[in-house]
Structure formats: structure tokens, C-alpha cells
């Protein structure tokens, strides 16, 4: 059984950039936008995966991920995905034994920057660097699948500030 424990935060400034160790471009498409699970295809560099996640809004969810041939992933994205793809640049930022994955969204979600940290336990302690803003782990608007339906570029000022 695959379990993901992940916390998600807005990023409040660019100070994290000085600690980047690597980055990669990603594009991901969703085969479904509704239901009790989300099926996603992701291409990063010259590799691809299919991912199945529970559609709950919690820091702990079921997750299963498997590598697939990149040509299959491109075909799935071109012919089977619902809605537009999510485009982002992911930066890896190590902080005291953990690695924050900072996603800078592109395309229709440009302007949105979030940081995620994967934990081994919900109660696990972790360093909160000064550039880490408000936690949005339980806010469904920040789920990538939600950003397909309602991209960040379409959010009103009040949606961005609540």
C-alpha cells in the first residue's frame, strides 16, 4: 500500500532560490477530474509516470506511482487527458534533513509558487524556513487537479487573498 504524507505551503519570498540544488520542467495531465481518486500522467525530463492518488483533502493520502514509456505518456496526454495540462518548474531545496519541492507554475497558473514537503509521519517535525508562507494543505484550490478546472490566472483578488 502506498501512502503519501505531504504538507503544502505558499511561498512568501524568493529567498529559497539561493538553496536550490536542482530543478526540472514538468508537465502533467489528468485522466479524470472527479471521483474518489485522481489519475495523472507526468512527464519530467525524459521520463514519465502514471500516478493514482486518493482524492481526499488531507496531508495523508493513498498514492501509487509507476514509470511508463515516455511515448505512451505523450500519447495519453494528447488524447485522453481531461482539461489542459499543468506546467511547472520544480526546484529541490534541502533544509535540515528534508527536501522542499518548490513548484513555480507556468502557463495558465503562472504566478503561483508553492512548496511541498513529504514526511514519514503526520507528527514529524520539520524546519520551517522564513520564506515559507501560509499552509494550504487543506485548501482544495491548491490541488493541481483543481488548478486544471480553475487556473490561478483566473482567480480574483479576493480568491488570492483569502
Describe the 3D structure.
By secondary structure, this protein is mainly beta. It has helices at 70-79, 144-149, 157-161, and strands at residues 3-11, 22-30, 37-44, 47-54, 60-68, 86-95, 98-105, 113-118, 132-135. The protein is built from 3 helices and 9 strands. An 8-stranded antiparallel barrel has the order 1-5-4-3-2-6-7-8. A hairpin with a 2-residue loop joins strand 6 (86-95) and strand 7 (98-105). The longest helix is centred in the middle third of the chain and has 10 residues, at 70-79. It is globular. The model has no long low-confidence stretch (mean pLDDT 95).
Short description:
With 162 residues, this protein is mainly β. It is 13% helix and 44% strand.
List the helices and strands and how they pair.
Blueprint: E1 3-11, E2 22-30, E3 37-44, E4 47-54, E5 60-68, H1 70-79, E6 86-95, E7 98-105, E8 113-118, E9 132-135, H2 144-149, H3 157-161
Antiparallel strand pairs: 1-5, 1-8, 1-9, 2-3, 2-6, 3-4, 4-5, 6-7, 7-8
Q: How would you describe this structure in keywords?
A:
162 residues, mainly beta, 8-stranded antiparallel β-barrel, 3 helices, 9 strands, 13% helix
